[in-house]
Fold each of these.
Amino acid sequence: MNQENTTFQAGIDFESVLQIISKQVYETPLAFIRENVQNAVDAIRIQAHREGANPNANSYRIDITVKDKKIVVRDNGIGMSDSDLKNLFWTIGASGKRTQEALSAGCVGTFGIGGFANFGVCTKLEVISQTEDCEQGTLTRLSEEDIRAAANTIPSVSQEESNVAAPRGTVVIGNLRKTANVNELKTYLSDFVRFVPITIHFNGENISQKGFLQVDDQDNLTQIGLDTQEWHDGDFVITGKMFVDKGHTLVAAIENLSIAGEFVNLKGRLRFQNGAIDVFKRGFKLCAIQIGCTIGVSGRLDCDRFVPTAGRDSADAGTTSLLGRIVLMLERIAIDTVLDSSERIVQNARIFQYVVRNSLIDKLDNAMVRLADASEMTLGDIRGKSQQGVGVFFGTAQKHALNQIMQARGHVVVLLSADRYRRDAERQYLEQYCAAQPFDGIIDCSEHYQDLTRFEKIFLSELEFSILRSYEVEKFHLIPGKLTEDIPVFLKEPSLGQPLDIFIDVRHPEIAKLEVLGYTDILYSLISTFCREYLGPSLKKWSRRFFGDGSLNFEFLSKRRSELWTLVKDDIGVVLKGGQRDVVTSDDVQQVNVGEQSEPKPNKEKRLLHIVDEAGTTGLNGYYIRILDSAFKAYGDLLPACENRGVVWAGNKISYVASDAISAAFQYEIRLDELVVAEFNGEEQVEGAIELQRPLQEMYAGIYFPIPSPLEPFLVPTGDQEIRVHLYCEWIDMLSAKHWLPREPAPSDYSKSDR
């Protein structure tokens, strides 16, 4: 059968098309109210642009009313004529917002989906609109029944005259399939319009006009730098300020952007922690988007160049690219800001991944690292020491004892961090800028010494005595020999139940240099110091006198020394101290000259010690003051283990403090008959504190604290001068909240205080 050439009109399943528009383009059925409000916002923006007015003026307004199954959105924007309604609003794909006027006004919508998106949730939609130059407005209406009646054709929209929108504007009335959840709609819509400058009321409540530029939680933020800064990246220039919150998270406040000299409206707040960025255009939220970066970023940005996709659930390719460049640029600025501060580096460990990947190792001067002696130092300070000839090594915490010995030798030993990126960054910096070498911790005794000299035997004997007396470690062997590394001593970790093996290179320069001192009290004092500095941190682990963290075990010690200690009270508080009163004259100064083979033995324990070291062999040159004999008997062997020492003066008191830096502190208080006004750093000061650099001296059956030179005029008599002092010693243990004094001898035992 022959077929004639004919034509027919294409059909359309209009109801299915609406399903695609309402359910697949938009991420939620609630989006219909957002689209209607966004149209209202755009209409007011164009009207304000025509009038040369600000959209936030009181003359512009949007009202949303929600009740039961009815939603009404009303605005007093430009409105639409009957032809606009027919050709733009009710025509899929058409839009009146692609004009230059609309672009200049900052309109958001350009896709032309129009009112048909409402039929995802509405059974009927009425749109009433009127322009300023029309005497009558127009009402248009379409329902689901009309769509079904049209079958496979395009349905007809009803139209009639109406002045409901007069004198200018648009009213959209939607009849819902089911009763609206008012709170859900309000919450959803508020998220999109809270920063819109136009007045928007939801059931009478203003849900817009919030301050977009206002820094959230201002009281929690501290500005870094005083002025607005310009951050550059090629032809990008961003102007803004950087803040840090109390949790050390950085916050960037962005004020504007220029690209190749062209101003671009950009503003917002970014927090450098993981999350999404809310993207806005002139206060109206377009979508939330995540931009991949190393340290994470979240917050909000508003820019006229931002464009959403049709469904508003993502940004278009151009917007995503622009956002990516902005975020990566500000991430670099944030990293630089973190690297300017040691404290911020500690709180933002994520930056090390960025530093390693972007070859910013040279920026790590302020990064704090842990040393073998448990102290901390910046990489920049270590770099400075290496330039002065100090050896720098890096190791791991597993070789703790060995690392501490290397540190005591005068080297800097860095314990690398456990985090992979931070460890890699530290290692690269140390190798590149500090000539650091890896220290694997493998130590061996390459030669055992057989024929020991008298000095070497005495050194070993005195070292053994110091270990027994100060740490009460009984099971150990001292093994003299040459070690494979440049260290004088090494404690080998024992197997369970086995004694400690302590290797001593008695011919190492650090030890051999002491032979010139002769067999004097100062030699024995320095051997005790050697024991504390090189072996103390390791021996504490095996000593009953110390807890595992290195703090003194006062409960254990007080029971063993009850005849020497007096427990003052259970709780630490202000107590009436006893003490000893002395008159100190120049006869009470014992002088020791370093290098003399014999020392004059005092006929009594003199209060002051003067070590004269003109050659600088020991670094001990200066005056020292003796603690009370009763205190020395009670706990003199504990004092050297307290490595944190200082002296404080105020009023007529000078107080020495020695602490284990954890819980226990020894206080040696000296009261004078005059005010202490010391010259310190070129100024006279009535109070102050000095860290003690010289070690304690154990000589003449006593312990002497060093006297800093600013305090010598108050403690060291000259000529016929007499200095009256009242002396007090006490222990305080914060762990047990107890307080001890040494038991003083009977008054008849120290009649010299009555001189």
Amino acid sequence: MKEKKIKKTSIGGQAVLEGVMMRGKTGVATAVRDSDGKIRLEAERITPPEKQNFFLKLPIIRGAVNFFSSLVMGTKILMRSAEVYGGDDEEPSKFEKWLAKTFKIDVMDVVLFFGVALGLVFSIALFFILPTILGNLFGKAFPDLVLVRNLIEGLIRIAIFVGYILFTSLLKDIRRTYMYHGAEHKTITCYEKGLELTVENVKKCRRVHDRCGTTFMFFVMLVSILVYSVFGALIPALNENIGLRILSRVVLLPLIAGLSYELLKALAKTDSPLVFPLKLPGLLLQKLTTKEPDDGMMEVAIAAFNKVLKMDEDPNEPVCKFVCPEKVSVVTENLKKRFAEANIDASDAEWLVSVASGIKRSELGGDTKLKSSVIDKINELAEKRLTGKPLCYVLGNCDFYGYEIKVDERVLIPRPETEELVSEVLKVVKPENSVLDLCTGSGAIALVINKKSGASVTATDISADALEVAKENFKLFDADVKTALIDLYGDLNEKYDVIVSNPPYIKSAEIGELDDVVKNNEPRLALNGGEDGLDFYRRICSGAKERLNDGGYLFLEVGIGQAEDVKKMLENEFDAEIIKDISGVDRIIKAKLKEA
């Protein structure tokens, strides 16, 4: 494990629920392992030190500001990590809904405000007011020795702090947080040693660090003894009145935090043995607030560190948000908005969420919580749809006559009009009949006819790729359909009772005018019907008589404006009629072979 000498990083961190937050000069990144075991990442930009207000960069003041900003940020990220790991299954109360609607206030902002306020009040009460009261009782024995009284108060404060750490370490969740704290330190140390950030390298590093918040808290207690002693000597009333003394503890806290911050930064810059005695108590306390992490925890810490490192090095490194469990209604509405901006129909969003989540489309307005993994799947599919890829290709299937058949870029997506073609065929076909499906594509027509009628079906196509998809669909639904890789009739010698086809019928010159979704995704081979769009009809009609049994039927789906031309191709040998589709368009040719 060869080490390189590099400059120490300013990146610091914090353990959160099942994760680690890392903060650099220009960004903050938090990695959390969710309930499915996947590492989730969230990153945001912050104002770099060089762009901060000059006043906020002054010594001592910067420490006080950093102390309170870290408290707010830490609480916020802690709450966010809880959302990622556990989600929030509770329905907002009527008051929460009223608050959000009336005052446009995010309830989580309110919770954050009170969380920070209560946390600060609790900390001040436990670590400053209580030690002051207890110190006052013991300090009565030394009424004229201000330093001794403040020293006793400081020792009580340290004892309470250590006791608090020992007590919380008994709690399972807190103990795991201490393990993540260890992972954070070991990762930063690994980087500062110039080692590659791998679990094996991180594992070998120590879990204590000079810039730890635990050491900072010890310095706060140490500096408070000196600050309170100085002010006690300058203002004698503080020693005589317990109320004023308690008030002074609170008022002087920003000054103490600022001085402690400067001390922490100064000592972190040197490894001189002369200052080691000052570092030692904080390092020993870190042995209590950090525990040896497991490999998974180190992976989380590495993910957070790498992200914030990229943000510091590259101003174009993108930010990101956690994917948290969310109500299906919210997920659906958000996706509808995204699709609307891209001029994609809202129904596509509903179908996508329904298929990905397994929730009926009619129930997407409910409060069912979707797991993060499901939302990942929805987002992945949505990104494909936003590229212009047809919904059926995105989902990998489409509904045809009640069957969820497989479709992809190798085949044309079956249209509703083709279902009407199949309905007309099913009106005449019998179980003992034989049926030939030309230009089968996905095999949708052949599949449904076989399953619904029991008739023997043969499906042909010139595209090997298309025929592979058709075979998969036949196997999926256990359909008894023969296949042949040939151009239309090819070398088939058998005769059939019914021939059906939905061949390519778009004019070659008009393909470029089709909707982008169609022309950029669906196979051109399945669209191009030649110069006038009738090439396949001429070939099908000219060979139909030889392949049909007496009294046999030919069914064809045609394009708009093509029905009369195709009917004329059959008038000598067939009794042909035109059937309109549900939209009133001449869509289907039904032709019965004339008796000899």
Amino acid sequence: MEILEIQMKHFGRFTDQEMSFHSGVNVIYGENETGKSTVHAFFRAMLYGLEKTRGRMSKKDEYLLRQPWEHSSRFEGVMRFQVRGKRYRLYRNFAKQEREVRLYCETDGKELDPDGTTLSALLGGLDEAAFRNTVYVGQRASETDENLASTIRNFLINCRSAGTPEVDLKKALEQLNQEKKNLEGEKKRHMADRIGKLQELRMRMDYTRQELKALYDEEEICRDRLKQLAEKSRREQEEEVGFQERSYGGEKQGVAWKAGEITMAVLASGAMAAALISERWEIRALACGLILLSCLGVMFFGKKDRAYKEEKREWERQYEEQRLYEELKQRERSLRRQEQEAPVRQKLSANLEWIRNAQQEKENLLESLEDQCRSEEETDEEGKELEEKLSGIYLAIDTMKGVAEEICEELSDRLNRRVSRIISEITDGRYERIILDEKMTVKIHTPDRVLDLEQVSRGTMEQIYFALRMASAELLSPGESLPVLLDDAFGFYDDVRLERTMRWLLGCGRQVILFTCQKREEELLEKIYTGG
């Protein structure tokens, strides 16, 4: 990346201030209190934004510090830069209520995504923390010595073996541990929910069984009531005095009359036969008398027989009328009884039907609850899934820890070699080997002994930290060389140290923008360029 131009429309003390830059080393000279640090901060604000700080850190809030002195409602700026042959224009509105980011590719004539994804890629994936601890060096950088060592160590752990911060191992481990904690909590909640669900299912099953038992009891009561009604009706019918069947009492007398009539007819026939056969008149006279008497007898007994039959027919008519009357009364009593019992029977029958339907519903519900309970007891897909996820998390954590150790060791060696090369170049071979141990403590190897940072001069310490920053920048963003932004970073350097460092910066292949309140950087550069 190479920064071409900035426009501080409204930023700190500057209004509509433009500055252009070239490749190589740019020196911006200014006395104290002329705004060099403001311009230096503008680069970081344009690349990474400017958020308002809350809480205890708000006293050192960069947002408040860099607010425009004039037109405070407008808080914005523009930066033009080029990456891999393409030119871009970045606009930011820092105002809290109107925050806006717009990125435009001037080469392609396209506006790019405003969410920062493309911008992050253009920055080589280097986040703000890494940026501030590598190529962005502010005043009093030595005050962060210990933090810088810790930051570099974290950078090493957080990088992949390829040397790019695409995967943040430390953050990944934190996320995995957080996910493990969340999953363990979710598992506990799931187990509690599952136990609660099983208890609820069992309680519902018990309650449903009780309801079924109550329905069975109620069904039995209804059936008993219906049975009692039927039994009562049967007893009442049996207890009713029905029509008494009886026969006509004069049957024998009627037979006698009929027999007398037949006898007289037979006697008359016999007398007639005797009269016809006998030749004696006495016998014929007697026969005729018998015939006369027999005819009178026939007439008498026939009249009696007809009277008997008439009397019998009258008796049968009256008997039939009485029988019909009794049957009608009995039917009326039966109908009244049925009318009285019908509502009760109907209500009991309807209740019985409702009970049967309710029983069927409860039986279906009980069967469904039993199936759910068996399924919940036998299969726990969510629990298995949580177990599998937890197993995966445990394995990932163990693997990640192993990978982190391997990566840290590999990148530490690479970083050690690069730091050693840089420090050797800027110290003219006086210090050729710098080693970062497992705790990322800096060890300086000399031909005679091993030194700690506290055992070297402040200037050497500054050079070592400078070498660490530059080597870390190369390690963390190998695909993109970000500009080196230095704000009075060489205050502890003598002229010899500064010259060697400037020579290294000229040959590092990065754009350098150096802010200084002294003339010596410019003079040294002129000396280097002229060969003086």
Amino acid sequence: MSYTALYRKFRPAEFEDVKGQDHIVTTLKNQIKSGRIGHAYLFCGTRGTGKTTVAKIFARAVNCEHPVDGSPCGECEMCRNIAAGTYMNVVEIDAASNNGVDNIRSIREEVEYRPAQGRYKVYIIDEVHMLSIGAFNALLKTLEEPPEYVIFILATTEVHKIPITILSRCQRYDFRRITIDTIAARLNELMKKEQVEVEERAIRYIAKAADGSMRDALSLLDQCIAFHIGEKLTYDKVLDVLGAVDTDVYSRLLRRMIDRDVKGVLQTVNDLVMEGKELAQLTTDFTWYLRNLLLAKSSDNMEDVLDVSTENLAQLKEEAQMIESDALMRYIRIFSDLSNQLKYATQKRVLLEVALIRICVPQMETRQDTLLERIRALEEKVEKGLTVQAQAPVYRTQDPQEAGNLQESEQPRREIPQALPEDVKEVAKNFRMIANEASGMLKVYLRQARLSVGNAGQLQIILPDDLAAGVVGTEEHKKEIQDLIAEKTGKQMEIEVGKVEQGRRFEDSFVDLEQLIHMDITVED
């Protein structure tokens, strides 16, 4: 016999088996017991919360010959026929593939005839928001005044796409996301029936990863069991199958971010990539980890809200004392934005690394919520006795008409050095080849670089914006460039990293070194 997926095998057959939707189940059972059955229902909510399941149970209950407390008995001829799919008067329609006017017109023709068996004809239209405007209009009249023996149950995940004329004719029921506790309890119950040994920690992780969907939880559990067939399903095995990361890794990553250890965080990312971890899942889980940190920092009485073990709670409270609330909220903002970007990105690793560098180097950001972080970074450098370099003066773009009226002496201009050292010339001629030998992220940004020369004869690498200059200007990347130049010339060369001010052109503030030595400029996008 072929295998049946868990979510199909354990689909609830009566209202008592439906979990997490008590407000809906109670109302529908009361309607059946009192005979106050409506003619049109709208079930809306996120995927996997029980909309279609409840609709099928309701269809059996209204036709059941001996309902028990509002639920179908499951034993009478009507219940057995409907469960087997041989009862012709319970019709399930997928509106995603049957969304035309003709499909709805056929329903209008069918409702004219009374059911040969049972009391009600029940039409379950799944994903009803996919119907065309013409189909909605064709359904409208039938939905408004159907025969007394017809019930429509419309199910959708996107209720905002349904016309108000349809909404006003239905009883609306909103299915809620199912809590982690409810999903975990159901999974434990089913695993006992299946005689599969599973760690409680593994069950709770799957319940959290399901994001409120019982069907998703069962599918994930099915996947994990299949990968480790016949073995005890542990927390580590679940992480391995789902490409997720243990919380200890998040702790190490956070501590390196707090220390502004760019090399350390990038090495952590590299290790995770080499282990085959899913970076989008990593970002989502780490955002959740940061959320737990913020809650732990906000109050001492968060044990009931934080879904973590006693050991992890103690670790969270320790780390919460290591970071300021404004910095933590900045981390959450950056990673929340990153989660949205990763959904459609092809270079997930690059985006993640850039986000981590922005966190470790707050000077790269100009947002107001980063100001305190930038001040703290400077204070840390002063405390460690490091030299804090002053930034070059910023020439802000003025109104074009005003700019035209400025005196020539007021315009910032760079003087051309009297002569260029031969070493600088050689590097400039070969810079594109040298840049191609740089590491992944650095190579990407160096493709956008222009070359200039300082008054002291040093090589200047000019980037188009703050982000690019911040990445290339880190001590690690500057040293990498100097090492590559040393390999080519056999000499150490002083370099500076700068950027083009917003609203200005490169030529306004810098001498174009490549033009100066009569070379073609090759700037890659």
